[in-house]
């Protein structure tokens, strides 16, 4: 699963063909966590627009605002919580790094993963709108798939699926669900790199540049996660 990521260089993100006139000023974020607002690109009719969405998809029919931060590509087309969004409401969730934990017994060493040149990328995502209790929440989830070779050494279940590297890649948001299976595949490990990072990333209130700096792996420390 993906439980934390970063957008440390938002100024490098390309918004060609995307309406972002209403966005507030963007600033670096090093520890984006579930339930926080995340920068996305969504398709509304024939136009694409940048928007901040709540991370943790709440299906529109849900009685309570309980969300899912990830949706597995293997079951996304069949699960009631995700299938309609996968058909009609796909999005891009912008990032330039993400974190996974290598577990050894009860201990877990965090690692950061990013492109070799640290350039921004987009997670495959889905979104939905929930109304209730006199509030409205527009939320999203990251689509995951099987781990590539780099991630498999750290996290052997699922990793992140990328639809596009550049937001203007044709077909990333307009394709029919039946044609998306080829896109929901592990990103090439050869274009990524990773290193161990501080246990401070486990704490959501810590959000600064030192979180992505390399450290020596230390599985002798028992961290508190999330």
For the largest beta-sheet, the strand count, sense and barrel status come to: 5 strands, antiparallel
The helix/strand class is mainly beta
The mean pLDDT is 82
Give the SSE order as H and E letters.
Answer: EEEEEHEEEEEHEEE
Query: What is the fold named in CATH at topology level?
Result: hypothetical protein yedk fold
Q: Low-confidence segments, ≥5 residues, pLDDT <50? A: 154-172, 222-226
Which CATH-level-2 architecture? Answer: Alpha-Beta Complex
Number of strands: 13
Question: Would you give an account of this structure?
Answer:
The chain is mainly beta. The chain has a single domain, classed as SOS response associated peptidase-like (hypothetical protein yedk fold), CATH 3.90.1680. 4% of the residues lie in helices and 38% in strands. It contains two helices and 13 strands. The strands form two sheets. The chain has a five-stranded antiparallel beta sheet, with no helix packed on it. Strands 3-4-10-9-6 form a five-stranded mixed barrel. The longest helix is centred in the middle third of the chain and has 6 residues. The C terminus is likely disordered.
Secondary-structure topology with pairs:
Blueprint: E1 4-7, E2 29-32, E3 37-44, E4 47-55, E5 70-72, H1 83-88, E6 90-95, E7 97-104, E8 107-115, E9 121-132, E10 135-146, H2 149-152, E11 158-160, E12 162-164, E13 192-196
Parallel strand pairs: 4-10, 5-10
Antiparallel strand pairs: 1-2, 1-7, 3-4, 3-6, 6-9, 7-8, 8-13, 9-10, 9-12, 10-11
For this entry, give a set of tags.
226 residues; mainly beta; hypothetical protein yedk fold; 13 strands; 4% helix; disordered C terminus
